[in-house]
Amino acid sequence: MSTKTDAEWKVVLTPEQFRVLRQKGTEPAGTGEYNKFNKKGVYHCAGCDAKLYVSDTKFDSGCGWPAFFDSIPGALVRHEDNSHGMQRIEICCAKCGGHLGHVFKGEKFDTPTDERHCVNSISLKFKE
Ligand SMILES: [Zn+2]
What we know:
The chain is mostly beta strands and 128 residues long.
């Protein structure tokens, strides 16, 4: 996990990245740069540059955020999140602890895992 303090994160992240990654914020639906985005490559953590997702696991869920059906093995940690009156699974970067989004299961999207990783674009950095 990260050894950075909030003050140190504020130096390396934009204010919006800090709000999402470190304060578990959510970018507005449909606004993220990777929502409608289909290039081949790897999505890294915007906080620490760890590899999180490959483009082959990305699919169009229509929900307004980038959706993936699986991560790179070991890249994420999952936490129960009972905030906002919902039972959700929060996903964070395993390396720096940055908040990425949530996992939803059993939605019957036609994917191998039947999971939807709903990830904030701003938490990601794409590299071809
Ligand atoms: Zn990270």
